[in-house]
Specification:
The complex is a heterodimer.
Chain A (H helix, E strand, L loop, with lengths): L7 E2 L4 E7 L2 E6 L1 H7 L2 E5 L6 E2 L4 E7 L3 E5 L2 E8 L2 H4 L3 H4 L7 E9 L5 H14 L1
Antiparallel strand pairs in A: 1-2, 2-3, 3-9, 4-6, 5-8, 6-7, 8-9
Chain B lengths: L3 H4 L36 H13 L21 H7 L2 H4 L11 H18 L3 E3 L5 H18 L7 E5 L5 H8 L3 E5 L9 H7 L4 E6 L12 H10 L3 E5 L12 H4 L3 E5 H4 L12 E5 L11 E5 L2 E5 L15 H37 L4 E2 L9 E4 L1 H7 L3 H10 L6 E2 L8 E4 L7 H20 L18 H6 L11
Parallel strand pairs in B: 2-3, 2-4, 4-5, 5-6
Antiparallel strand pairs in B: 1-7, 6-7, 8-9, 10-11, 11-13, 12-13
Helix pairs in contact in B: 3-12, 5-12, 6-7, 12-15, 14-15
The chains are: A alpha+beta, B alpha/beta.
Chain lengths: 129, 479
């Protein structure tokens, strides 16, 4: 399981990477893709769509189930990773380069975990269940 | 396997007519086909063998144990088909004058009253064709109710995270927003969280009880009260009614509306896309919004009526009536005293099998379960790589249907087992022995676990390829 240090995480297994003033890349974590197993579809928002912290902004479908992905920020969709529409398996191959969407005009970000904190959280989930 | 069309031989027939010995009549030219229809030309043996071959590749409850959790794959007694097949029912036309269908209307009225009594509702519609269709109907009633009171801001539907996927899908289809309600550690509705999420925007809650973890929501009266106090309505998803039918009633738990999967609880045929019925019942204050024509008794005569405030029709005519008649036959066969035994035996069977399997498997239900229980193979998956999928494939290889897999989503590596009431102790023992034998074999050789099944026509299809690149047009595999 990988937990890169240069990004932040939330407890819904979404990662956030700040890319500049008020912009951030968003994706799902290694833990998330492992739990979901092979991804077969992603539904992404449209550039320009509003993103609301805690609201669903896209969904990912694996061979097991469809899962909503909730936005860790409030802002506007600047860009989406269109390649994923044809190759959703890229998220399984490398979840940290396969970003889902880039947000801009970010006005609010939820309190995020560091790599170390998130790693501890995931290990608790694995050990405690 | 070839299609019937591919087996066609020009000129072959199942019958040969005698020579014409009366004058031949012709249709007007404009009504005649230019070419014969492209139907397969076959002998009767070609057809019967084709369908027997198809049947041999399928597995149903007539072939063996079929424990799909939360699906209640119950046996369909033959008496149901005898009743539905009576020519006075099977030969009817939906546009037949009402005087000629009094018997059918009486039967539908009887089914309405029986199912209303079993669920604690006041009125039923049989128009919805399936469970999810029933859910949609139920939420349409909620919407109509709120709108009629000028309370149209109620746009959110609370759905527990253990719910069937159809619940959030239904809410979305009705233009509502889903509020996901996390479960407590023991898998039940969290009253504190529920209190937090309900408010002036709450249209209602959708709930199964017992829930999909096979747990009875003991605080159901508090749950429905919280939702009602917030101004919302309570919808009962009948998916798990088999565990309580005849013993307790959703209406008494505080639910305002319920759908019944007649194929789950009342032994009508299951799935396959064929005619089904997701009967919806409601309390009297929602009755005027029900879809479709309602059977009314006017003196000694039955008629149809549809309220001006009805949400409209959601299927043609009166629903799949022959399915309703099967359910009625089942209810009448058991009678008021017999009906509660169904749920009791379903619970007894589930608890017996759970107890037997607990010898080897980790079972998430602590203490007694309701009509189904959940095995988790999370530890095995981590320790040796043997997954619930491997277990399921090996079960299939042993000539049994698997339990439901990877549902509910909140339990990892799970198998959800629902034996239903019609299995005898011998079957349950055989199942337990087989599961334990398979388990020991898989754990002894985790590498070999990936090879199963080896005895079936289809082994392990490529699930990603099947989802990404489905082949939707038939081409013969032999050609």
């Amino acid at each position: 399981m990988r937990y890169p240090e240069d990004i932040k995480y939330n407890k819904d297994h979404v990662w956030v990477k700040e890319t500049g003033a008020g912009t951030a890349l968003i994706g799902i974590t290694d833990y998330a893709q492992t739990q979901l197993s092979s991804l077969v579809f992603v539904n992404l928002p449209e550039p320009g769509d509003e993103m609301v912290l805690g609201d669903r902004f896209c969904d990912v479908e694996s061979v097991k189930a469809v899962s909503d992905v909730y936005s860790p920020v409030s802002g506007v969709v600047k860009a989406i990773n269109e390649d994923l529409l044809n190759t959703p398996g890229a998220i399984n191959d490398d979840p940290y380069s396969a970003w889902l969407a880039e947000a801009e005009e970010v006005t609010e970000t939820e309190e995020l975990l560091t790599a170390g904190e998130y790693k501890t959280y995931c290990e608790e989930l694995e050990g405690g269940s | 396997m070839k299609l019937l069309f591919e087996k066609s031989v020009p000129g072959r027939r199942s019958y040969y007519l005698s020579d014409l010995d009366v004058p031949m009549a012709s249709l007007p030219e404009n009504l005649c086909r230019k070419a014969p229809p492209g139907l397969p030309e076959l002998a009767e043996t070609d057809v019967t063998r084709h369908y027997s071959a198809l049947e041999s590749r399928t597995f149903g409850i007539n072939d063996g144990f079929y424990p799909l959790g939360s699906c209640t794959m119950k046996y369909n007694p033959k008496i149901n088909d005898s009743v539905a097949g009576l020519p006075g029912f099977a030969g009817l036309h939906p546009l037949q004058p009402i005087e000629g269908v009094q018997g059918l209307l009486e039967a539908l009225d009887m089914a309405d009253r029986c199912l209303s009594q079993i669920t604690g509702m006041d009125k039923m519609t049989f128009q919805p064709a399936a469970g999810a269709h029933g859910e949609f109907t139920g939420l349409m009633l909620f919407k109509a109710y709120h709108e009629s009171r000028g309370d149209a801001a109620r746009k959110t539907v609370v759905v527990p995270d253990s719910a069937h996927g159809t619940n959030p899908a239904t809410a979305s289809m009705c233009g509502m927003k889903v509020v996901n309600l996390p479960s407590t550690a023991d898998g039940r509705v969290d009253l504190v969280k529920l209190q937090e999420v309900v408010g002036p925007d709450t249209a209602g809650i959708m709930l199964t009880n017992p829930n999909t973890l096979g747990l009875f929501e003991q605080e159901i009266l508090e749950i429905t009260e919280i939702v009602h106090k917030a101004g919302g309505l309570c919808y009962y998803d009948g998916a798990n009614l088999n565990a309580i039918a005849g013993v307790m009633r959703p209406g008494d738990m505080g639910f305002d509306c319920v759908h019944l999967n007649l194929h789950k609880t009342f032994s009508t045929p299951h799935g396959g896309g064929g005619p089904g019925c997701g009967a919806v019942g409601c309390k009297s204050f929602l009755q005027k919004y029900l879809p479709g024509p309602q059977v009314q008794k006017d003196g000694g005569r039955f008629t149809f009526d549809q309220s001006d405030e009805s949400v409209g029709n959601i299927l043609g005519f009166y629903g799949n009536i022959l399915i309703v008649l099967r359910a009625l036959a089942y209810i009448m066969a058991y009678g008021k005293d017999g009906l509660p035994l169904i749920a009791k035996h379903a619970l007894l069977n589930a608890n017996y099998l759970k107890h037997r399997l607990a010898e080897r498997f980790e079972i998430t239900n602590k203490g007694l379960c309701m009509h189904e229980f959940i095995i988790t193979m999370e530890k095995e998956a981590k320790a040796s790589g043997v997954t619930a999928m491997d277990m399921a494939k090996a079960i299939i290889d042993n000539g049994m249907m698997t339990p439901t897999m990877y549902f509910p989503l909140i339990v990892k590596e799970c198998l959800m087992v629902e034996p239903t009431e019609t299995e005898g102790k011998e079957t349950l023992d055989e199942v337990a022995d087989t599961y334990i034998r398979i388990y020991d074999a898989l754990m002894a050789d985790p590498q070999a676990a990936k090879a199963f099944p080896v005895n079936t026509v289809v082994g392990r299809p490529d699930e990603v390829a099947a989802a990404r690149n489905p082949i939707l047009r038939y081409t013969s595999v032999d050609s």
